[in-house]
Amino acid sequence: MNSHQAIKISDRVYWVGAIDWELRDFHGYSTSRGTTYNAYLVLGSNPILIDTVKAPFWDEMLARISSIIDPTKIDYIISNHAEMDHSGCLERAIETFKPKQVFASKMGIKALEDHFHFNHSITELPNKESLTLGDANFTFLETRMLHWPDSMFTYFANDGILFSQDGFGMHLATSKIFADQNDPAILRHEAAKYYANILLPYSNFVTRLLAQFPSFNLDVKMIAPDHGPIWRNPNDINTILNWWSNWAAQKFYPKAVIAYDTMWQSTAKMAHSIADGLLAENIEVKVMPLSGSHRSDIIAELLEAGAFIVGSPTINQQLFPTVAAMLCYFKGLKPQNLIGQVFGSYGWGAEAIKLLQDELKTMQIELVENPVSVKYVPTAEVLTNCRDLGINIAKQLTAKLEK
Ligand code: FEO
Fold it and tell me: How many angstroms does the Cα of residue 86 sit away from the middle of ligand 1?
């Protein structure tokens, strides 16, 4: 018996992707719940494959396709995104299935050629134009920088499905193919984490796309991304679109994130006192020691926060390495609308404080109040200063929210 069955998602479309239960790192993003690589098979007079899967999952995709049709019957392949978790099996699929045509966006063709250096001919899909392939009607939307220059959505008009590649996706390995079959809290958490780690720097493009969306006049009954579950009913579709709209706008709430590392618990004690001050002013707080918190989880918490407070000991005149690595990662992701401040302990030189402030200024985080630093171990007075810092940041955040 074929152990990998295709799953029917609409009248004419089957999911033929792969579940990666084991993935724990997606180039620096901790994927603690694994992921899926979603590929889709559109049946009709001329079967069409939309996207493929990461190269090691060829057998799984092939088995799922074979559970429905002879794969050599596939006449067309549409590649929405050149990143190798979706194009990794494209060349093998072209050579095995021998489709009549392969399609991608203009930038997609360049990206695929630069990845695979192959001689296969790929046909360009003009942006916002419709195309009929046999009895299947499609419209293509370039979504440049969401999140690569080549990125494209494909709308299958017959069944009202928007194949959105990475858009509206998440890293979540699940055998429950539809969003409404999964735990809503996990969906929100993983969708936010995906947005924060993959899409955040491109939020202006997201906002523009969502604003233009109604003008495309697409009757979207289902959003089928390339990772995670499929959004299939109007409520769920509205939910993911609203999440994305708010995240792209960098809407923030009375919430603060304190991230730090510590050598002998001095910086940790300071973090706890700052948190105490924030809590006293009714601000939600996430205290995230880098010894136990991955930077990709911290940016996920920061997505809806209004304040970011960072602590580091000074070690050999530098930032603690985990703190420096986190800030390097965050500078690329470009979170917006944050106020913040820094803190930390030192032995004989407090270089980390200035280094931290410089990093936060580079990130365009508005520094409010004054930093707190301490030689070696904080006294009760220093911890009171930390608590006061928390209180004052909370007041500034509340005032900013009331504006
Ligand atoms: Fe899932 Fe940008 O690849």
Answer: 7
- Give the length of the chain: 403
pLDDT(1) > 80: no
Pocket of ligand 1 (CB under 6 A): 81, 83, 85-86, 147-148, 166, 226-227
Pick one of 3.40.50.360, 3.40.1170.60, 3.20.20.410, 3.30.420.10 as the CATH number of 256-396: 3.40.50.360
C-alpha closest to that of 323 among 370, 281, 355, 283: 355
- Each residue's pLDDT tens digit, 35-51: 999 999 999 999 999 99
Q: State pLDDT tens for residues 114-165.
A: 999 999 999 999 999 999 999 999 999 999 999 999 999 999 999 999 999 9
CA–CA separation, 245 and 233 (whole Å): 18
Question: Tens digit of pLDDT for each residue in 224-277?
Answer: 999 999 999 999 999 999 999 999 999 999 999 999 999 999 999 999 999 999
Residue 227 appears among annotated catalytic residues: yes
The amino acid present at 333, given as its one-letter code, is L
Residue 121 backbone phi and psi in degrees, to 5: -85, 130
Give me the catalytic one of 4, 86, 147, 171: 147
Q: Which tens digit of pLDDT belongs to each residue from 52-105? A: 999 999 999 999 999 999 999 999 999 999 999 999 999 999 999 999 999 999
Atom from ligand 1 closest to the CA of residue 165: 1
pTM reported for the whole predicted model: 0.97
- Every domain of the chain with CATH number 3.40.50.360 lies at 256-396
Q: Which atom of ligand 1 lies at the shortest distance from residue 198's CA?
A: 2
- Supply the Cα-derived Rg of the chain in whole angstroms: 24
Name the CATH superfamily for 7-249.
Ribonuclease Z/Hydroxyacylglutathione hydrolase-like (3.60.15.10)
194 in catalytic set: yes
Active site residue 147: yes
Which residue has the CA at smallest separation from atom 3 of ligand 1? 83
Q: Which residue is closest in CA terms to ligand 1's atom 2?
A: 83
How far is 206 from 212, CA to CA, in rounded Å?
Answer: 10
SS3 content of the chain, % helix, strand, coil (to 5): 40, 25, 40
Q: How much distance in Å is there from the Cα of 235 to the middle of ligand 1?
A: 25
